[in-house]
Design a protein that fits this description.
Layout (H helix, E strand, L loop, with lengths): L2 H20 L12 E2 L4 H14 L5 H8 L12 E5 L3 E6 L4 E11 L5 E5 L4 E9 L2 E4 L12 E2 L5 E10 L2 E9 L5 E9 L10 E8 L7 H7 L1 E6 L4 E3 L7 E4 L4 E7 L3 E7 L5 E8 L10 E8 L1 H5 L4 E8 L2 H4 L18 H16 L5 H15 L1 H28 L3 H15 L7 H17 L22 E8 L3 E5 H20 L9 H16 L4 H22 L4 H16 L8 H30 L1
Length: 617
């Protein structure tokens, strides 16, 4: 197996890995009681219908019949309280003492509208308390508050909602809004209600009809899901994609998030974890106004609430790796950084470097160029080693051509003679492959990272209005494998890949083998063009710049490499090996030589057997 064949195999494996990354996959099988892949939307719609029915005004008799001992708080007036800081604007309602609307002030939707993360129409919640006379939804009671509209500055601000059930009996919901950031502390308190409560935990139900904030609905649906962290700190998620998903867990969870492509609505338990959690995502292909319907149905331990430890957090904000680490344990895993093998590269290298460059470069196109140059400088020793390997092959090309004429079209014989030549001059056929293989994790890491970087969202560069999505330079009716647009950055990436392949082929000798790897080097870029046409413009621009810089880097290295000196070194190695002074081949080179010799011997035996069979006839 020669160098180009090895590179070809690596590229084919890369395509297979890319295919696995791009095509939605079913979730791995879990315990039957923990995860299933089909849902019955009637359960969710039934709860939503009950919430809508409960929102209708009640008279005193109906309130007494429905709410029993809580009837005194079942009627009242609805008033909104708006509290904001520099990052977020939250609207609370006295009806339910709940968060009614959240606006992220620093972000806009793809069509430049205010980014309303949740509102009263799309988001429904239920907080069901078990009592001796049945279950009561605390989000249907009316609460009193002294809070007023305002802006938080300096110190965090509390909004306290209190519902009087009877003398000495009350319910409090307390929200703490920070001076900056997206985390709302939430405390639930029950006072004097121990004799009223029944056994069982408090049910928290949340249904969110997820709105579309990015331009590509299909991509939004593939990205939208529910993430969660179990009590033993295993990060899990519902399978991403465009089909219904459901998970029913027997183990508690510490937190869950309703995850859009770049934004999160999350709920975190500060003390005891949430019990008996059920999560669902439902897709209605006919409804383009809703990305997915996300449903979280969890139980809050009532013992915590009775003991004054009913303390939780809401997170309403961007899915930004730099912000999430302080919210809760493993909360930053909401930002997908790739498989476990690649994640450290993104977490400890690319994300920090990207955020460091942000401090000095405001134009994100220029920032990507700077990132490419920085990475290429780090990889310069590997690039130099790869170029030296190709230079050795060029020096040996006349001898390889002579060898081909001598042995004819026998591929096995060609490869065997080639390995002998490599041994004589002390050249390893893998010396040029290792640097190429070393760069593969970097390419795959970026392939994972760029589609999840909120930093690129709505950042413009040249003709691209948003580097976090494709640049639709040309649009047309949908075409299979291409879609309804053509990304110019993807075209430039493909052209630069073909140019790099052409340059590489001019400086790399043709190796024997059944596959013309030089021809294949032109085919792969065209195939990847169709794959990456709908990927973020920032990613394809990075690959384009990387190809250009690589060609320039090799041209620069070429000026410092003297091929006459390389030939002299190879000739000296040949002399030493002939005199028995050289090193014996080892490692992979020796293994390859041994296998080729065995194959040559087997071929000779087969030829002899065939001759004997003919002579008998």
């Amino acid at each position: 197996m020669d160098r180009n064949q090895i590179i070809g195999i690596v590229l084919i494996l890369a395509m297979l890995v890319g295919y696995q990354l791009l095509v939605p996959k079913p979730a791995p099988e879990k315990q039957a009681a923990q995860q299933t892949q089909t849902t019955k939307p009637t359960t969710a719609s039934g709860v939503a219908a009950a919430i809508n029915k409960a929102e209708q005004p009640l008279d005193s008799a109906a309130a007494k019949a429905q709410f029993g001992d809580f009837a005194a708080a079942a009627t009242g007036q609805t008033r909104d309280i708006v509290v904001e800081n520099k990052d977020i604007k939250v609207t609370f309602s006295t009806h339910g003492g709940r968060v009614k609307e959240v606006v992220l002030k620093k972000y806009k939707t793809y069509d430049k509208k205010p980014l309303v993360l949740i509102d009263d129409q799309s988001s429904k919640t239920l907080l069901e308390l078990p009592t001796n006379r049945g279950k009561v939804d605390l989000h249907q009671l009316y609460y009193q508050t002294t809070a007023q509209n305002g802006t938080v500055s300096g110190q965090p601000q509390q909004v306290v909602f209190r519902a009087e059930v009877a003398p000495g009996q009350s319910i409090e919901q307390i929200y703490t809004i920070p001076a900056e950031g997206y985390v709302l502390d939430y405390d639930l308190k029950l006072d004097g209600l121990n004799n009223t409560l029944a056994t069982g935990d408090i049910r928290f139900f949340w249904e969110d009809k997820m709105r579309q904030y990015e331009n590509d609905l299909s991509n939004n649906r593939r990205s939208a899901t529910i993430d969660y962290l179990t009590a033993d700190e295993n990060f899990e998620k519902l399978t991403e994609g465009e089909s219904n998903q459901e998970a029913t867990l027997q183990e508690p969870v510490q937190w869950f998030t309703i995850k859009h492509k770049y934004f999160l609505s999350g709920f975190v338990a500060k003390n005891s974890p949430l019990a008996k959690a059920t999560f669902k995502t439902l897709v209605d292909p006919a409804d383009s106004s809703v990305v997915k319907t996300a449903i979280a149905d969890v139980m809050l331990p009532i013992a915590d609430v009775k003991a004054g430890k009913g303390q939780y957090k809401f997170y309403y904000g961007p899915n930004d790796f730099q912000l999430l680490g302080s919210v809760a344990p493993e909360f930053d895993q909401n930002v997908y950084l790739g498989y476990s093998v690649l994640k450290p590269i993104n977490k400890y290298f690319f994300v920090p470097v990207f955020n460091f460059l942000e401090k000095f470069i405001s134009n994100y196109g220029l920032l990507i160029i700077a990132l490419v140059v920085f990475v290429k400088l780090i990889l310069t020793p590997l690039t130099y080693k790869s170029y030296i390997s190709m230079a050795k092959m060029r020096v040996l090309q006349p001898e390889l051509n002579e060898m081909k004429e001598r042995v004819g079209d026998d591929m096995a014989k060609q490869q065997s003679e080639q390995m002998k030549l490599y041994q004589e001059v002390g050249v390893s056929p893998l010396s040029g492959c290792i640097p190429v293989l070393a760069t593969m994790p970097i390419l795959f890491s970026l392939f994972m990272l760029f589609p999840n970087l909120i930093e690129l969202r709505q950042k413009t560069f040249l003709w691209a209005n948003d580097l976090s999505t494709y640049d639709a330079f040309i649009t047309f009716p949908a075409i299979p494998f291409i879609g309804s647009h053509l990304s110019l950055f993807t075209v430039l990436m493909t052209a630069s890949s073909i140019a790099y392949a052409y340059y590489n082929n001019q400086t790399t000798p043709t190796q024997p083998g059944p596959v013309n790897m030089k021809a294949m080097s032109y085919v792969f870029p065209l195939m990847f063009m169709f794959v990456l046409n709908s990927y973020p413009a920032g990613l394809t621009f990075y690959y384009f710049v990387s190809n250009v810089v690589t060609i320039a880097q090799q041209q620069l290295i070429r000026r410092f490499v003297d091929e006459d000196k390389i030939k002299a070194v190879l000739d000296e190695n040949r002399r030493k090996n002939a005199a028995g002074e050289g090193k014996k081949p080892g490692g992979f080179q020796a293994l390859l030589q041994k296998q080729l010799a065995a194959a040559d011997e087997a071929r000779k035996q087969a030829d002899e057997a065939q001759k004997r069979a003919k002579s008998k006839k």
